[in-house]
Amino acid sequence: MRRRIVRLRTLTATAALALAASLLAPQPGAAADEPPPAADYCEGQCADILPPGANGNATLAEILAHRVFGTRPAHADDQLGPYDALSSGYQSLTDDKLTQFFNDASFGVADDQVASVTKPRDDVTITRDKKYGVPHIKGTTRYGTEFGAGFAAGQDRLWLIDLFRHIGRGQLTSFAGGAPSNQGLEQQFWPQAPYTEKDLEDQVEYIKSTQGERGKQAMDDAQAYVDGLNAYREKSKNGRYFPGEYVLTGKIDAITNIGEIEPFKVTDMIALASVVGGLFGNGGGGEVESALSLLKSQERYGVEKGTKVWESFRARNDPEAVQTIHDGTSFPYAGKPENARGTAMPDPGSVEREQLVYDREGGAKTGAKDPVQAPKKLRPLQGMYDKGVLPSDLFQQDGHKKGMSNALLVSGKHTASGNPVAVFGPQTGYFAPQLLMQQELQGPGISARGVSFAGVGMYVQLGRGQDYAWSATSAGQDITDTYAVELCEPGGGAPTKDSTGYLYRGTCTPMEKLERKNAWKPTVADSTAAGSYRMQVFRTKYGVVTHRASVEGKPVAYVSLRSTYRHEADSIIGFQMLNDPSYVKDASTFKKAAQNISYAFNWFYADSTDVAYYNSGANPERAKDIDPALPVKAQQAYEWQDFDPGNNTSAQTPPAEHPQSVNQDYYISWNNKQAKDFSTAGFGVSAVHRGDLLDGRVKQLTEEGGVTRASLTQAMSEAAVTDLRGEQVLPELLKVLRSKPITDPQLATAVQQLDAWRKAGAQRNQTAAGSKTYAHPDAVRVMDAWWPLLIEAEFEPGLGKDLYDALTAQLSTDEAPSAGHGPTGSHAGSAFQYGWWGYADKDLRAVLGQPVEGKLGDAYCGEGKLDACRDALLATLTQAVAKPVTEVYPGDASCAAGDQWCADSVVHRALGGITHGPIQWQNRPTYQQVVEFPKHR
């Protein structure tokens, strides 16, 4: 049974009445009696942290003082120290010591801890605490509460919100400057979510008109939030305490105050939501690249074996993959059909990527710099955005999604208290300021504390309620498909690959052309010479054109169709429910709330009695026998069931078919496989996954019993400083190497060093706080140098260069901490998510004669012969040992060449004028909660 199109469940009459009753309050602007404090059933056992600090705004004077004297605004970095310290302090952690590394996340602020109280309207107060400056927003009316949330967002993240709304609209260069990285980022993102203003307005209207009272309330809340944000925008501008980046990018004159911060609109929230979803909530795509690598495999091995080999690397349902639901419950989705219909494989050599950029002028063509004549006092800030505000590959669509975050939950049956324990949070990269912002919201129909993405913080998106907490990890299941539309000429004539007409249900239909022209001038912040260019995409009823090709000799355009396209903010209903204490009362109602979130996330829940898990997402019901991993012919027989292109709606898989569970003994998630038969959307979910770092530790804790908040935090912390390759694959590598005596003294020493490191836990952690030296530096260096060499030597000879290159284009071989990857590029913290460790593990075990489930389609290391495999590994180990440390860690703007600890370290990517120094590497959530509720309503 499947449900029809209702992307967000409409309210029952009873629920609507309950919602209306919960919102009865004085009219906007009217003062009301102070409500009683919100009930808090956590009793001091909820904690959280978000480095570097709550305050993400800085005036021009504060930015200058920082660059000249090293000072920072209050609360800009006071959570960085405790966050960093956990890597050295976790071994001796107890429940009583948790607040040395986390903030008390209780509701409210004690009277003696109040730092300031702001009252932007009579019906709302914003109270900030002395320790961290987190805003606690308390309203007597619904409007006032949301107005306060918007006002507080302006206080803490005004520049960041403005920056990201322009990214969402494809206008980053016009706003922040034409640096090549800025150009690359907007060229990567805008084709994924190209909208006209009417498109954005239609999404607002869709929520209002289809989601009952909750939909109308959500858009009212969004308007109130925008009103509060605009109120702060105006006050800060008139009071001259606005973020200094507006001066540095030429928006406002520092002396005359002439200039403007553009007013915010509700449609900006839609654009912002598309950015958040694009970074963390999408899944699937890349079917054209998959088709190309499949063709290469078939060329190498023949169709039958080539398909088998390719499928073994694709690993849609690897039986050895770690799973969140580990009790064997099956949730079939997006699997490979026995006899696929409608697959649209390109003719060999015919694929061309669609051109995006046209009419480059000036700096867009030459890349030249043209620094402005900056006043003397601003010269320390000259060129601070010359390398862009964000990495150019932030939104890359090559299968390397920025899916992050982890979760560890243990049911009350296995804890010391008998209450569930959870340690969880989103791993959203390290930015300064963070993309997330902390807040507490208390008002009619809202009672929650936690974090929200800046600019869309109408509700707490990850955090805690009165007697429950929730969090999420990126799920990445397949909600994006590629269709091959047959090209035609609307006026008649033979079509070519350049044609802009396509067949839609038998009718030649013109494509819709969407354009975005951006222009910029050099500023103090960005010295890129004045320039401009135009971005252009073609949109069809089946999605946006990404490639041109031919299929069976006929010209086609490949188009990408995402189920959440035109529905960027629909998930607001689910978040509204999660914040509503009258709605979420237990695990069952939590799951119902999560069902209303259309982005692909794994949601986790804990209260005093239950732990629960639910996988959300607008999972399309595909036509029978469609292979979602490859392009599909754009014909009605192969469309999503009940597909309506008007609002991009279709039938979706019913909630019962989404992976879900209540009170499993424990749950772990680190973007790993969700459940049996729930097919992965990309390469890399195989026998070894970073989820194994959590699963083994939490399983052991659960079996021993008596789990506490501290012991579960220790499990997370130990995994956070462990090298996945060293723990999970190095044992097999050493077995192969030691299958015969190692006679070369230098190699024997290297093997001994690697083994000692493995036995010590394969950690990349400093010997003591502040030492900035690893206990086994030589072993870590050798592993970093060896891994890419050994993978190439193990696999390229058997696969052949063309197929090896095609597969590595879809899944990089390594993701060590020192590599340049993740949302912030280098120094990203997140590591070991994408790599060939699972492939290597399976192949090496096969060489060693060990049992392997879900074998690769061929033998690779030494063609499956132990001696030949050993020779290949020894040859590459010789190369690795000889590689100088300055080549293994070549240095960058933050680190000197050869500085191993610094190369691994986490560095917050500055989105504004305030910077932060490196901290010890941790593969850990950016925002993290530690919770244990002793009581329930």
Please give a structural write-up.
The protein is of the alpha+beta class and 937 residues long. Helices cover 32% and strands 17% of the residues. Helix 7 crosses helix 10 and helix 11 (287-301) crosses helix 12 (303-314). The chain is globular and about 80 Å long. The two termini are 35 Å apart. Residues 1-31 have low confidence and may be disordered.
Outline the secondary-structure elements.
Elements: H1 13-22, E1 46-49, H2 60-69, H3 80-89, E2 103-104, E3 114-121, E4 124-129, E5 135-139, H4 142-168, H5 172-176, H6 180-189, H7 197-210, H8 212-239, H9 245-248, H10 266-281, H11 287-301, H12 303-314, E6 330-333, E7 352-353, E8 357-362, H13 363-366, E9 406-410, E10 421-425, E11 431-432, E12 436-443, E13 446-453, E14 462-464, E15 469-474, E16 480-488, E17 501-504, E18 507-510, E19 512-520, E20 531-540, E21 543-551, E22 554-562, H14 572-578, H15 587-594, E23 601-606, E24 611-616, E25 632-633, E26 660-662, E27 666-669, E28 676-678, H16 691-704, H17 709-720, H18 724-728, H19 730-737, H20 745-759, H21 777-799, H22 801-810, H23 837-847, H24 866-882, H25 885-888, H26 900-904, E29 909-910, E30 928-931
Helix pairs in contact: 4-8, 4-10, 7-8, 7-10, 11-12, 11-22, 14-15, 16-17, 19-20, 20-21, 21-22, 21-24
